[in-house]
Design goal:
Layout (H helix, E strand, L loop, with lengths): L5 H5 L25 E9 L3 H13 L5 E4 L15 E2 L7 H7 L4 H21 L11 E6 L4 H13 L4 E4 L1 H7 L5 E7 L4 E2 L2 H14 L3 E3 L6 E4 L4 E4 L4 E9 L16 E10 L4 H7 L6 E4 L6 E4 L5 E8 L18 H10 L8 E11 L6 E5 L4 E5 L5 H16 L5 H4 L1 H4 L10 H19 L3 H10 L11
Parallel strand pairs: 1-2, 1-11, 2-8, 4-13, 11-18
Antiparallel strand pairs: 3-7, 4-6, 5-6, 9-10, 10-11, 12-15, 12-16, 13-14, 14-15, 17-18
Length: about 475
């Protein structure tokens, strides 16, 4: 008779649904659109980008008529699934920003810090209860071989004025008791964690109080340029809008033009049952930082308000940008993640996992927001977030609105706003390449060999896949 492994037993009663969304505080959905309406600004997508954009638009011009349509319900996409570790980065981390836009680094860093301050001010202004904690962001070296990575990152943090500290093995172990951690980089200011779904629900409430009309379970079916303006059709209604912002990230990757640059890569997360006081004592974590490690296929982790550990970071891709594959909703897909969890926290061996989930992120060669123009500029796509998006979406939505409205600002003149990420090969080459890459990432640290040259080749193509994937 087959004996289940420790990991299999730990997933026996797991709910394959995001922990964040499995909450009685979730608001009722707004009714679907069932008539023909018009507005000044239509936003497609009620995740973070769309909700931030609506608030920006109404705060700037209270008389502007703003409508959001959402294919399902608020935050059901990437906004309801992330680790939600807060960062000042608006370009997926310092190393990624330097790779992409070295000449704009000083300005991007200042804009990122201003954006995080504005993020915090908005939460306070609208009294959004979202379990926000400001414990900082901690990158941990896995073994001695991980130390050069955090040392190089530390130099960048200090160069651009971050409140960052390099930790020895003893110091990082005092913060987080794991036998794997050989050192750490702790960025203490303007970083922490948040409950992403509560944040999204709070932004929804704020937007509606400002006069934004929201229609849920109202997908975009088609759009036609009226010149000027755009006519959008939905299953039971239509919207005539002066301007349209597409805020759908990976879910727009079904569009022929958008998917040329955006791949719907899936990321996986597990969440434990709440830890007891005794279990918490074995791992420390008293400062409750959001944590990334230096594994090739990195893991990230954080605590929830009720002391569960969220642990994520194993990527996959399904043919033709499938954003909802049934094959990804089984326990077997999460076993490697659970095994890594137990290696990281051996004192918690056998702890059960209440929730596990996966979902698409919009991966581009940039790994950060970009803007695509449609209908002679009357429709703008703002997307491509694949990490640190909880805060970066606030920035990206504001810049996307400025581009849509034809404004000349500091941000709209920068290279990130006037350029596009590279093309991604079509199917079946995309699927074949993704599968080889995911296997190489999973096995590189253990087996080496051909995997490192392959990863080097993929990174030369523009995908910095060994850096932090998600925030």
């Amino acid at each position: 008779m087959y004996e289940k492994t420790v990991g299999e037993k730990a997933l026996l009663k797991t709910k394959f649904f995001p922990y964040w969304l499995d909450n009685t505080a979730a608001p009722d959905a707004e009714p679907a659109l069932q008539e023909a309406i018009d507005c000044d600004l239509l936003i497609v997508g009620a995740g973070f980008t769309g909700l931030w954009a609506a608030i920006h638009a109404k705060e700037e011009d209270p008389e502007r008529d703003v409508v959001i349509i959402e294919a399902q319900c608020v935050a059901i996409g990437a906004s309801g699934r992330p680790a939600a570790i807060l960062s000042t980065s608006v370009m997926h981390g310092l190393e990624n920003a330097k790779r992409l836009f070295p000449d704009d680094m000083d300005l991007l860093e200042q804009l990122g810090k201003d954006n995080l301050d504005g993020f915090k001010a908005t939460i306070e202004k609208y009294a959004i209860d979202c379990d926000i904690e400001w414990g900082g962001e901690l990158t941990v070296a896995i073994g001695e071989e991980g130390l050069p990575d955090i040392e190089n990152e530390y130099k960048l943090y200090k160069q651009y004025g971050h409140d960052a500290y390099l930790l020895s093995k003893e110091e990082v172990q005092a913060e987080m008791n794991s036998p794997l951690f050989a050192g750490g980089l702790w960025s203490k200011s303007r970083s922490g964690t948040v409950h992403p779904a509560k944040l999204a629900w709070g932004l929804k409430r704020a937007a509606m109080n400002l006069g934004v009309r929201i229609y849920e379970y109202t997908p975009l079916v088609d759009s036609t340029h009226i010149n000027p303006g755009v006519q959008v059709t939905t299953p039971q209604g239509s919207v005539m809008a002066n301007k349209v912002l597409l805020a759908t990230n990976a879910f727009a990757a079904g569009s022929k033009k958008i998917k040329q640059r955006v791949a719907a890569i899936r990321d996986r997360i597990v969440v434990t049952e709440p830890l007891t006081d005794a279990q918490m004592e074995t791992i420390g974590w008293k400062n409750r930082q959001g944590i990334y490690d230096t594994r090739t296929q990195l893991n990230y982790m954080r605590l929830t308000a009720d002391n569960r550990i969220l642990f994520g970071g194993r990527l996959d891709y399904f043919f033709n940008n499938d954003t909802d594959p049934k094959a990804d909703k089984t326990a077997n897909n999460f076993l490697p993640l659970v095994d890594n969890f137990y290696k990281t926290f051996p004192s918690l061996q056998g702890i059960k996992f209440s929730h596990a989930w996966s979902g698409p992120i919009g991966l581009t060669t940039r790994m950060a927001v970009h803007f695509q123009h449609y209908h002679n500029g009357d429709m703008i796509y703002a997307g491509g977030y694949s990490g640190f998006g909880v805060t970066a979406t606030r920035f990206g939505s504001r810049v996307g609105l400025a581009i849509l409205d034809g404004k000349d600002t500091i941000e709209t003149r920068l290279a990130f706003a006037t350029s596009l990420p590279s093309y991604i090969p079509p199917e079946p080459f995309r699927w074949i390449g993704a599968k080889i890459t995911m296997y190489a990432l999973d096995t590189l640290d253990e087996k080496g060999g051909w995997r490192q040259p392959w990863i080097n080749m993929v990174e030369k193509m523009g995908f910095p896949i060994t850096q932090n994937e998600l925030g």
